[in-house]
Amino acid sequence: MKLSPLVQELIDNLKHLPGVGPKSAQRMAFHLLERNRIGATKLANSMAKAMEHIGHCRTCRTFTELEQCDICASPKRQASRLLCIVESPSDILAIEQTGEFIGRYFVLMGHLSPIDGIGPEELGLDQLQNLLSSDEFDEMILATNPTVEGEATAHFIADLAGSYDVSVTRIAHGVPVGGELGYVDGNTLSHAFSGRKKL
Amino acid sequence: MKLSPLVQELIDNLKHLPGVGPKSAQRMAFHLLERNRIGATKLANSMAKAMEHIGHCRTCRTFTELEQCDICASPKRQASRLLCIVESPSDILAIEQTGEFIGRYFVLMGHLSPIDGIGPEELGLDQLQNLLSSDEFDEMILATNPTVEGEATAHFIADLAGSYDVSVTRIAHGVPVGGELGYVDGNTLSHAFSGRKKL
Ligand SMILES: [Zn+2]
Ligand SMILES: [Zn+2]
């Protein structure tokens, strides 16, 4: 005896969520059906809308449904002449929470990983070079994750930037080695920014 | 600086999922946007459809989009004259996996909990009494959870069944006390069924 097709389909599809296996997918499905149909319907609508309409900022590549994100569109940020390179949109959130960086970002959406077929093109490095050649920036701060891949990516980008008139810095290793930037507390991140070193 | 409205809305709505807080909602949203838009779109469609179309079996109250579930509609099950009372649809799945019970179910969708306003009516006990008076069953097996509330609910239903010509049994305490039925291994559940005692 099996579950009805629609119930089974819901459970199967919940497994698309990261970190959700068969048992928790089942628990989630029954919980939503039993106790939160309104919330689940809102989630379904908002997820469908998000997947259809959210693209990437044409300048920094972060997620947005607009052509350009709020940060790239801000005159105050445009005046700063500082560009911070991060691996993921969640890193922007973590850095913004420190309140200490008033500049612009460029989101790689990953790090170099030849084994997964992720090279310079996938990280949008052509687009980054266009930004660097625009003469809008004095300094590029490499804030990739303090992991082996993040370091390798930072060095690759630093080499690439040699052809442009921009100084290249790396956030200090106040950030714990081996961790992910999005999980670092604000205080540590502040120190990492203020202690940044010229590469 | 904030996230774009659609991204923020997706993160907020992901918090409707049980066990998902702000940090994991954010992680889920970025993961889906970055790596699994097709899966997320399928999930959104299937969730919307499920919330709209899945109701309760008119006989046993389990979740189904049909008027009657497969188990209630099965002639083999109808011939068995055994009725098993469980708290939740996931308990049916656990019991079916043992392959040892060929009978029908009645799903309470909870247990008696006066403090939460859950009384006999919320558990569908009127409907259960209709079933008992139909003379379709010789035995009713109480398979509510081996918790304080599950025991209290089992005793309440046993008392109620006194007016009907049906013998009432409780699954044996092979099941670990204080646990939830849906998480018990099949072997333990088999023993609990075969060791059931007349109440
Ligand atoms: Zn942008
Ligand atoms: Zn049924």
TrEMBL record, chains A, B:
GO BP term (any one): DNA recombination
InterPro entries referenced in this protein's UniProt entry, alphabetically: DNA_Rcmb_RecR, Rcmb_RecR, Rcmb_RecR_Znf, TOPRIM_dom, TOPRIM_RecR
Entry keyword set: DNA damage, DNA recombination, DNA repair, Metal-binding, Zinc, Zinc-finger
Residues annotated as domain Toprim: 81-176
A matching Pfam family: RecR_HhH
Record-level Gene Ontology MF annotations: DNA binding; zinc ion binding
Gene3D superfamilies reported for this sequence: 3.40.1360.10, 6.10.250.240, RecR Domain 1
Keyword DNA damage: yes
Zinc finger (C4-type): 57-72
Signal peptide as annotated in the record: none
NCBIfam families linked: recR
HAMAP family linked to this entry: RecR
Function: May play a role in DNA repair. It seems to be involved in an RecBC-independent recombinational process of DNA repair. It may act with RecF and RecO.
Protein family according to the UniProt entry: Belongs to the RecR family.
Protein name: Recombination protein RecR
